[in-house]
């Protein structure tokens, strides 16, 4: 049997989708397991109180506890850098590596890498967030070289409620941004139930559909030295030759 690979995921406390989906994605890889550490996140907003949830002190405490499980990677499987700035995730990864000695990544930095590797120029942005958060994401992503040509969002702020948006509603938002014109779709939230239907949507629409949870799992597998192409039925992210080699 191959050596064990343990993927560590930092998880928002009110998230109910991330854990089962991450585990399902790697279910066919018998040597891979996923392990989770939570810290408090209950709402997504631009208020001072909401932004304080992403203070590095709490995130690092969760990361250090995950390190006790001797994980091979630690991923911040959340999307806060989309409105706080990608430099926040870059610094977080540097700090996790320096503190634990474990390779680190994030969902948002994985998105950036995916778009760079695939040369996607027009991104369709789908989220459950409020108007002001969505506007901040559009601004932040554009400054990071990820231009969104179309967007849809649900207007929600309670993090738990994001998981209550059904797959049909999410699929309709994805179809809408495709109709508006885009080269790829990014579903930016790790508490939305879309990963299980991305493959079917890609077949229907003819463009890649990238999910935040899957993006973190993809990058974690690469960092751990596992071939993501062994993951089947979870969309082109795991099968695209351009995305199968660690950089």
Q: Which features does this protein show?
A:
Rossmann fold, alpha/beta, 17% strand, four-stranded parallel β-sheet, single chain, 42% helix, 247 residues
In short:
The protein has 247 residues and is of the alpha/beta class. The chain is built from 10 helices and 8 strands. Helix 3 packs parallel to helix 5.
Describe the structure.
- With 247 residues, this protein is α/β, with parallel strands linked by helices.
- It has two domains: 136 residues, 3-Layer(aba) Sandwich (Rossmann fold); 94 residues, Rossmann fold.
- The protein contains ten helices and eight strands.
- The strands form two sheets. Strands 2-1-3-4 form a four-stranded parallel beta sheet, sandwiched between helices. Strands 6-5-7-8 form a four-stranded parallel beta sheet, sandwiched between helices.
- Helix 3 packs parallel to helix 5 and helix 6 crosses helix 10.
- The model has no long low-confidence stretch (mean pLDDT 96).
Describe the largest sheet.
4 strands, parallel
pLDDT under 50 segments (min length 5)?
Answer: none
- Domain module tally: 2
Question: What Rg, in angstroms, do the CA atoms define?
Answer: 16 Å
CATH architecture label name of the largest domain:
3-Layer(aba) Sandwich
Give the N-terminus to C-terminus distance in angstroms.
26 Å
- Provide mean pLDDT, rounded: 96
Helix-strand makeup class? alpha/beta
Q: Which descriptor suits the 3D outline?
A: globular
Instruction: Give a count of the beta strands, DSSP E runs of length 2 or more.
Output: 8
Helix and strand pattern: EHEHHEHHEHEHEHEHEH
**Main sheet strand line-up:** 2-1-3-4
CATH topology type of the largest domain = Rossmann fold
CATH class of the largest domain: Alpha Beta
Percentage of β-strand residues: 15-25%
Number of helices: 10
């Amino acid at each position: 049997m191959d050596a064990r690979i343990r993927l560590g995921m930092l998880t928002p406390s009110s998230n109910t989708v991330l854990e089962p989906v991450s585990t399902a994605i790697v279910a066919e890889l018998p040597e891979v397991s996923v392990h989770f550490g939570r810290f408090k996140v209950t709402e997504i907003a631009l208020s001072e109180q909401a932004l304080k949830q992403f203070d590095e002190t709490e995130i690092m405490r969760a990361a250090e506890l995950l390190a006790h499980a001797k994980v091979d990677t630690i991923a911040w499987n959340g999307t806060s850098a989309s409105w706080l700035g990608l430099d926040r995730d870059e610094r977080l990864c540097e700090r996790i590596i320096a503190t634990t000695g474990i390779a680190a990544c994030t969902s948002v930095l994985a998105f950036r890498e995916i778009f760079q590797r695939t040369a996607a120029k027009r991104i369709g942005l789908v989220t459950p967030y409020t108007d002001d958060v969505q506007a901040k994401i559009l601004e932040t992503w554009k400054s990071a070289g990820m231009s969104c040509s179309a967007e849809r969002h649900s207007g929600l702020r309670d993090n738990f409620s994001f998981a209550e948006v059904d797959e049909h509603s999410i699929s309709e938002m994805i179809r809408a941004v495709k109709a508006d014109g885009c080269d790829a779709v990014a579903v930016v939230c790790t508490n939305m139930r879309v990963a299980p239907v991305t493959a079917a949507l890609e077949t229907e629409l003819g463009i890649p559909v990238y999910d935040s949870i899957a993006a973190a799992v993809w990058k974690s597998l690469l960092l751990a030295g596992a071939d993501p192409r062994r993951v089947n039925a979870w969309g082109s992210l795991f099968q695209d030759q351009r995305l199968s080699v660690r950089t």
